[in-house]
Amino acid sequence: MYQFKFADVGEGVHEGTILEWKVKEGDKVKDGDTLVIVETDKVNAELPSPVDGTVSKIYFKEGEEITVGQIIIDINDGSANEASAPETKEALGEGEEKAAGVIGEIEVSSDLIESSTEVHEHVAPKNTSGKVLATPVARKLAKDLGVDIQMVNGSGFNGRVLTEDIEKAAQQKAGTTSTVLAPKVTISKEGNVEIVPISRLRKAIVKSMTISKQVIPHTVLMDEVIVDDLVELRKNLKPLAEGEDVKLTYMAFIFKAAVLTLKKFPYFNASFDQENEQMVLKKFYNIGMAVDTPDGLIVPNIKDADELTLFGLAKEISEVGQATKERKVALDRLQNTTFSITNFGAINVSFGTPIINHPEVAILGVGKISQKAVVINGELKAAYTLPLSLAVDHRVIDGADAGRFLNYFKELIANPLSLLVQ
Known about the structure:
Layout: E1 2-5, E2 15-21, E3 28-29, E4 34-39, E5 44-48, E6 53-58, E7 65-67, E8 71-76, E9 97-100, E10 105-108, H1 136-145, H2 163-173, H3 200-215, E11 218-226, H4 228-243, H5 250-264, E12 270-273, E13 278-281, E14 287-289, E15 291-293, E16 296-298, E17 301-302, H6 310-325, E18 339-343, E19 362-366, E20 370-376, E21 379-393, H7 399-414, H8 417-421
Parallel strand pairs: 14-18, 18-19
Antiparallel strand pairs: 1-8, 2-4, 2-7, 3-6, 4-5, 6-8, 9-10, 11-21, 12-13, 14-17, 15-16, 19-21, 20-21
């Protein structure tokens, strides 16, 4: 009996909702057949069967919530394993914890994970067995937030540390006991008001934005660059792009320039490991792009953007953007982003103060390209300009370095032919 679990997809996705079952008990399935569609914080994911067999038991109904690690369906594939009831965050057993993977199961040791020796709060853990009981998701969250998991009181079964325990400890470490930065208040509902529950995606946005602003001291630099040559080059290349069924937007040039700039300034294509006081420099370039969807902002990434041509970038940006708006983007597109770009110009805005996508250390905002009067060599002329807003993590990036990064990017985008030869 194969027990299919809701996989740990990472990137803060810990739970989901069953949207639609594609099978019923008694159905025969083959490896790769879609079993169920699950709504997560960021995408609607189709989960395929990893084995051939017959559906023996479905544990959850459509509309019910599931969490990472829970068994959601049993498939009789001829193996001797017995089926078991679905696990919950509180009921996972001791010893070796199992995190579901795309194929089979991944054994995850429940041995103590070493944490920082700098203890900021002294809370006696409930568990006295010498091991901290926690799911892999909770351990990862603790590492991301710099929380010593050994010092966290677990509220789950047998003292197991849950993700909400980690979040609470992180807030206490930052000097607040609320799940958000603002204190709890009673909001009056008298008068003509409408109560609108926020979506699962919006809840995820609330959490990620709170963490980013709570952890990262942002510094934002703003400037603009004359892009007459960029406008002309795009105009000349558009017919060629259309001949290859490619929609050539300015974002392709911006991505290309961003990658080249990141190669020159590697500390911007990185994450800051605060617990171990070290920078993690990424030697790959997965460039995130903020996509405005009907349900809220989602940031997928273009994988290995440095290996794509200008037209290749344009095609990827278009396809990934459309899939994201339809909530059909692949889960791996939401993972391991190294640097992000947000386009204020898409909403007819020039400048903004973008929020860094934690644990990245920088984000570039680009505004609308517009024609206006500028002074060039002492003469007043009409020129196309591109507004830029660069936010950096001031813990590890100084303003001078941010300025040099922005100036080099401006140099590339003002001379776009250089993008085609590098």
